[in-house]
Each structure stands twice: as structure tokens, then as C-alpha cells.
Amino acid sequence: MEESHNEDNIIGSPIQEFFRGKTVFLTGGTGFMGKILIEKILRSCPHVTRIYMLVRQKKNKEFKQRMQEYVEDEVFHKLNAKQRLKVSGIPGDVAQPGLGISEEHRKLLEDSVNIVFHAAATVRFDEPLPTAVNINVAGTKEIFDLARNMRHLKALVHVSTAFSNCQLDEIREEIYDPPTTHQKLIQLTQSIEGKFLNEITPIILEKRPNTYVYTKAVAEEVVRTQSKGLPVSIFRPAIGKNILKVILAQILIMQSIEDANQNENEPAEEVVHEEPTVYNYVSSTQRPITWKEFSKLALTHGEECPPSQGIWCFCLTLNKYFLIHYLYVIFMHFLPAIKMDGIAMIFGKKAQ
């Protein structure tokens, strides 16, 4: 007991001290990036009070069971039972009005949360525009509506993407003018019939290649217009090629909290609303990697750490010809999948 008391009195790093006694609310916690972030906070900041994460309910699984399976994930294997108990699920859905959170849970978050990480997003490039808008744009607006009522908020970090303004030759750490406002985009997707909207989506996207980067750009406009009076920063990661870069990204997210929190020590009358601080995290210019190097790394680590549910030998083949790629898809994916599904159905199993 004495030893535990002494450990509590040890002064840690600035980040550890920032998280001491704090309560965190996280969206996107069930995704790979969210899991890494939660594990990093629990392991490196032992005095964090609690982490609430928004979790969608599933029809075929009880919420309590899903959360139990979540904290037993392999990514948390270094954490003890006490650390894992600090993770609590909040039933909800970022695509729903009010985040789908009950009044009881909303009050809980408003009264206790100090730090918010908004990392939830649909990252599918071919996502229909209405779905992408609901999750990436309207969901971000709902987060700010909730955060504005959080009485003890110290920092809000919005996770964007380095490709939100990919139509530009150079992307600086600033918020660019959006292709449209979030109000107009939400109204557009709600007022136009789905089939016709799908047909005109390429026209709406203009120079942006897909609905993902388009809606993430508009989401940054939400952050800029809704952040008045709030300690907010934007984090723009690129595509993580390996686990090390993802972990480093989480460290940078935590460092950005200190910047988002800098106005706390300023007198209220001196606080002037400025645009949120933006952090680009793109390592390719400092440590570039070729596709050949990437394929070697993927093959090496793929064999060392194969997917737990994989049923096919790990391999990676790169080519620039569509016909060859199509043949690979047919003979290496489609036909084997039909065979395996057929065998599964013979034995009364569900086809994948």
C-alpha cells in the first residue's frame, strides 16, 4: 500500500501529468487507430481516471459482452485488469442525431469529460455521399454540440487526414477554404434522391478523388466554425504503413493536447478565438519508402504476424497491368472463396 501511494506521488512527464486525474471520451475506439490510442494512454499514463468510448450496439451481441471482448483484445495484452477496467463503453452511433447517446450518458459525459478525441470516420473511398456526410460531417458537428456543454473540457482533438486537401500541390498546417459549408452539404444530401445524388457525386467532388477526402475537408470547416471558445486542435495523419508510425502518431496526438489547452492559463478577457492549431503528420518526405521496400516489409511481417482468422497463404504481388491484376483476383481470391464457402455450407456453416 505504501509503495502504491509513493508511485502516485511520483511526478511524470508533462503528458503523463496532463492526463493525471483526467477523463477521456473517444470516438472511433473500436478501430485500429483507436485501440492503439487507448492502449497507449492506459499504459503510459497510469493516473488517467477513465476512458469512455462511443460504441455501436450490435443486434446479435449484448453490449456488455462486446465490451468484455474488446478489452481482451491482443493489443491490450500488456495491461493489467485494473487498467482495462478504466475503459467504459457508451452506447451510441456517430451517424445518429445526438450521437445516439441517451440523456443519462450525455449528462455523464458533460459532467466528467476533460479530453475528447474524435477519431470516428468512414474511410471507405467509395462510400455513398449521404453515408459519408452523416458520419464524417454531421457526426463532427454532433461532437462539437456535445463538447460545448462539457463543463470541464481541457482539450478536443479532431483526427482528420493529410489527404483532405489532396488537390493542392503543397499542404500547410492551416485550415483551407472548404469546397462547401457543412450546412449546405447536409441539406443537399437530405433533399436529393439517392440514385440521382450518386450520379452527380463526381460533379460535386470536383477535383477531389472520392467522398472520403471530400467529407473530411468539409469536416475541417465544421471544426473551424464550431470551435469558438473551445480548446481544439486538428491532427492530420497520412496512411500508416507500419505499427511504429501509428504509435508515433498517437504520441503526436497527445502532444497536440498541450497546444489545444494553452489558453487555459490565460486570463479570460485576453483569450482571443483563433483557428485551431493544425498538425500534419506525414513522414514520407523525411523517410521515404518505395513500393519494393514496402512489399518486402509486408511479406516479412505478414509471415511473422499472420491474421488470426486468415485461411489463405500470405502473399503480396504488385503489378501495373489491370488484366493481370484481374486474373489474380479471380484465381487467388474469387474462386478459392467460392470453394471455401461451398465447403462451409456443406458442413452447415455460414458462408463468408
From TrEMBL:
GO cellular component, one term: peroxisome
Alphabetical list of InterPro entries matching this protein: FAR, FAR_NAD-bd, NAD(P)-bd_dom_sf
Alphabetic keyword roster: Lipid biosynthesis, Lipid metabolism, Membrane, NADP, Oxidoreductase, Transmembrane, Transmembrane helix
Enzyme Commission number(s) from the entry: 1.2.1.84
Keyword match Iron: no
Signal peptide (residue range): none
Domain Thioester reductase (TE): 26-239
Catalytic EC class: oxidoreductase
Transmembrane feature ranges: 323-347
BP GO terms, sorted: long-chain fatty-acyl-CoA metabolic process
Superkingdom assignment: Eukaryota
Molecular-function GO term, any one: alcohol-forming very long-chain fatty acyl-CoA reductase activity
Reaction equation(s) it catalyzes: a long-chain fatty acyl-CoA + 2 NADPH + 2 H(+) = a long-chain primary fatty alcohol + 2 NADP(+) + CoA
Function: Catalyzes the reduction of fatty acyl-CoA to fatty alcohols.
Family: Belongs to the fatty acyl-CoA reductase family.
Protein name, entry field: Fatty acyl-CoA reductase
Gene source species: Laodelphax striatellus (Small brown planthopper)
